[in-house]
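Q: Given only this backbone (207 positions), what sequence would you predict?
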């Protein structure tokens, strides 16, 4: 599907849990190739919701507290599908999603992770890179699959680790790269330059 023409932009739903800094970069750098049609959060006080409202983007809250993972994911899926997205983007969405949810959006569900995957899946990636004495750190945009932070890598950006870096300074430099990389990947997805292939994932999907 080609969304390169200005008359038909790719529809994107963004999922957030907090301030939405990547959301802001995504909205600001579409180059008219995609449009954010909704921002959904599992946290009613997520600052990114205010940004979305200020930019006249529809918002929704699907609260996770008090629900099983399966029940929450079902409600979230129903809300997302109201907006008929071509792509669903995780941008600081702090939930581990169920297999059924991921399978529903397989091939059009993207995540950004603050490490050079496959290194440092999960949390505390910057400190782990520092503790390991890495000379290079970075960020990865990847397709989401049922395995945590294990889907096919779409694109990465590297950041040198400086001698005087601490977790905060390293994280801030990685964040600069995040804000460039995520919109770039979405633009390329809209242009058909990023494509999903299940051939790489037989073991992951079927296990």
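A: Predicted residues:
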């Amino acid at each position: 599907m080609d969304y390169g023409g200005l008359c038909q932009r790719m529809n994107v739903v963004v999922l957030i849990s907090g301030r939405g800094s990547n959301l802001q970069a995504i909205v600001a750098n579409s180059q008219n190739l995609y449009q954010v049609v909704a921002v959904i959060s599992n946290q009613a006080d997520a600052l990114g919701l205010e940004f979305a409202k200020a930019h006249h983007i529809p918002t929704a809250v699907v609260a996770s507290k008090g629900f099983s993972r399966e029940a929450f994911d079902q409600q979230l899926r129903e809300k997302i599908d109201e907006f008929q997205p071509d792509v669903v983007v995780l941008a600081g969405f702090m939930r581990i999603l169920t297999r059924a949810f991921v399978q529903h959006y397989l091939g059009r569900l993207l995540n950004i992770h603050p490490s050079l995957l496959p290194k440092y899946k999960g949390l505390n990636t910057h400190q782990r890179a520092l503790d390991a004495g890495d000379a290079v750190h970075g960020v990865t945009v990847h397709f989401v699959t049922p395995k945590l932070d294990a889907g096919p890598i779409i694109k990465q950006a590297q950041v040198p680790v400086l001698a005087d870096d601490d977790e905060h300074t390293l994280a801030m430099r990685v964040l600069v790269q995040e804000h460039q990389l995520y919109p770039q990947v979405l633009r390329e997805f809209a242009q058909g330059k990023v494509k999903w292939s299940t051939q790489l994932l037989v073991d992951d999907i079927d296990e």
